[in-house]
Specification:
A hairpin with a 5-residue loop joins strand 1 and strand 2 (about 90-100). It contains one helix and eight strands. Helix content is about 5%, strand content about 35%. The N and C termini lie far apart (about 125 Å). The protein is mainly β.
Length: about 190
């Protein structure tokens, strides 16, 4: 029975002419009062502004002094040597020297250090972090003719400058007081000696 129904459907489909294709044709409307009108752009006259009754103020051209190297207090000081080296591993070193005998040199190296991080509860965690260590020196002559040399190291111990011109922390020679000793006395109090 199923085969009969399928055969009948196929026979009906085969009998339909192949020229039966409805095509959609877009409607065309004649121009009416609802058609989109075309407007030309309005032409406005160019505005004219009256000139002001007062004249524009005439400011004098500022006169700048001609720069002169003789006016420069340090015109005779020049850089006699200079170097700058930056490495991929984060280390670097640079130096310069001037004609007035001022020199400065500095080097920097990356180093593993102990780092501390705190979470939101205040708990500290310790981990290794990369940090910079720095060493350098500088030399200069004061206007009074004094010669100064400063060397420094900056690392996980902090900044440590050294120089003969820096103040020295005084050393205390006296003995610090000792806190009194508390010894229990018969369990009722303390006897102080």
């Amino acid at each position: 029975m199923k085969l009969f129904v399928i055969a009948a459907v196929l026979a009906v489909v085969a009998a339909v002419p192949s020229s039966y294709k409805p095509e959609y044709i877009a409607p065309s409307y004649p121009a009416t009062k609802y058609a989109t009108p075309s407007y030309s752009a309005p032409k406005y006259p160019t505005p004219s502004y009256p000139t002001p009754a007062y004249p524009a103020p005439a400011y004098p051209t500022p006169a700048y002094p001609t720069p002169s190297y003789k006016d420069n207090k340090y015109a005779d000081i020049t850089v006699t040597s200079q170097s700058d080296e930056r490495n991929i591993d984060g280390s670097s070193q640079w130096s310069y020297a001037q004609s007035d005998y001022t020199t400065r040199e500095e080097s920097q190296v990356q180093k593993k250090m102990q780092g501390v991080a705190y979470d939101s509860y205040g708990k500290a965690t310790y981990e290794d972090v990369m940090g910079n260590t720095n060493k350098g020196s500088s030399y200069w002559v004061s206007p009074e003719g004094e010669k100064f040399t400063l060397t420094w190291t900056a690392d996980d111990a902090g900044f440590q400058p050294k120089g003969d011109h820096l103040p020295v922390v005084p050393v205390h020679e006296y003995e610090l007081p000792v806190a009194p000793v508390h010894i229990p006395f018969n369990g009722k109090g303390y006897n102080i000696y």
